[in-house]
């Protein structure tokens, strides 16, 4: 049995600088991990004479087992290794998901779960795939998966797949989770989304910070996001992560962050977590 974390992430900025002919948006963003994590527990079963069966428990309401990114990650890993000529019988596996990261919040929970599945199953089955190989497999599952696979805070460009290591300050964050689920597709398809933000260098972005081009669209469409941003801005610089809905502000110490969280209106949900430039998953496995 193997239990591994799947950390949340923040986009410390998210600039949209263009759009490709295939509709994908060109981004510049800073990723940083949080020590707020889902947990995946891998329990091996018998060796399978064919391809192993992957069972996910409990199923996520509204998401068929075969459509879950965790199962998809495992199946793609098997397919990749079979194509490389690895015919070794592999154990069936049950993966128990302890879900803490809210869905549709811009915290990357699904992508992180997929990454932990790839790394965990590669370890459990002793497949010997490199981080580069796992990142390549992960990219087909989502643009955010490679950053979780590689495990370092990153400056990302392209559609999010071109990664450079960065070392932003590790602040203590208050994260508020508005009671709404925002579709990434809805935000990126919005006709009023800014798609021509000025291109920045990594050094300038780290020195001056940035903004989130998706935030005005989410605020206009979801009053819950606007209200959370307005409330949190009374305590620090507030902004939205990813395409929403979660919003955050960073503080230098946990005592201040805890005090802000304690003042949160009763009908809102939130948490305090430290930013981490090395993924808790990689720290756990000492990758």
Question: How are the SSEs placed, and which strands pair?
Answer:
Layout (H helix, E strand, L loop, with lengths): L1 E18 L5 E23 L6 E4 L11 H15 L7 E8 L10 H16 L6 H9 L5 H6 L3 E4 L4 E4 L6 E6 L6 H5 L13 H7 L6 H7 L1 H10 L6 E2 L6 E5 L2 H9 L6 E8 L3 H6 L2
Parallel strand pairs: 3-4
Antiparallel strand pairs: 1-2, 2-4, 2-5, 2-10, 5-6, 7-9, 7-10, 8-9
Q: In brief, what are we looking at here?
A:
This protein is of the alpha+beta class and 287 residues long.
Write structural notes for this entry.
With 287 residues, this protein is an alpha+beta fold. The protein has 2 domains: 2-165, Ribosomal Protein S5, domain 2, CATH 3.30.230.10; 172-276, Alpha-Beta Plaits (2-Layer Sandwich). Helix content is 31%, strand content 29%. Strands 1, 2, 3, 4, 5, 6, 7, 8, 9 and 10 form a 10-stranded mixed beta sheet that branches. The longest helix is centred in the middle third of the chain and has 16 residues, at 109-124. The protein starts with a strand and ends with a helix. The mean pLDDT is 95.
């Amino acid at each position: 049995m193997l239990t591994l974390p799947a950390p949340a992430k923040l986009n410390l900025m998210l600039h949209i600088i263009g759009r490709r002919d295939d509709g994908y948006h060109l981004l510049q963003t800073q990723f940083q991990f949080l020590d707020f994590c889902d947990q995946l527990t891998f329990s091996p079963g018998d060796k399978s004479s064919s391809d192993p069966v992957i069972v996910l428990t409990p199923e996520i309401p509204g998401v068929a087992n075969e459509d879950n990114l965790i199962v998809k990650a495992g199946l793609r890993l098997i397919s990749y290794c079979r194509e490389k000529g690895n015919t070794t019988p592999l154990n069936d596996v049950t993966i128990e998901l302890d879900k803490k990261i809210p869905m549709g919040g811009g915290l990357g929970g699904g992508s992180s779960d997929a990454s932990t599945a790839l790394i965990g199953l590669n370890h459990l089955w002793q497949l010997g795939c490199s981080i580069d190989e796992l990142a390549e497999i992960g990219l087909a599952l989502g643009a955010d998966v490679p950053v979780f696979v590689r495990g370092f805070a990153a400056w990302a460009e392209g559609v999010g797949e071109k990664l450079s290591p960065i070392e932003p300050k590790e602040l203590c964050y208050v994260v508020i989770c508005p009671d709404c689920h925002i579709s990434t597709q809805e935000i990126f398809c919005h006709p009023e989304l800014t798609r021509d933000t000025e291109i920045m260098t990594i050094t300038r972005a780290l020195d001056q910070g940035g903004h989130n081009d998706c935030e005005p669209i989410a605020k206009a469409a979801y009053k819950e996001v606007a209200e959370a941003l307005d409330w949190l801005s009374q305590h620090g610089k507030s902004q939205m992560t990813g395409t929403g809905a979660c919003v955050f502000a960073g503080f230098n110490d946990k005592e201040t962050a805890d005090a802000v969280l304690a003042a949160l209106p009763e009908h809102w949900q939130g948490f305090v977590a430290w930013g981490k430039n090395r993924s808790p998953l990689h720290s756990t496995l000492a990758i």
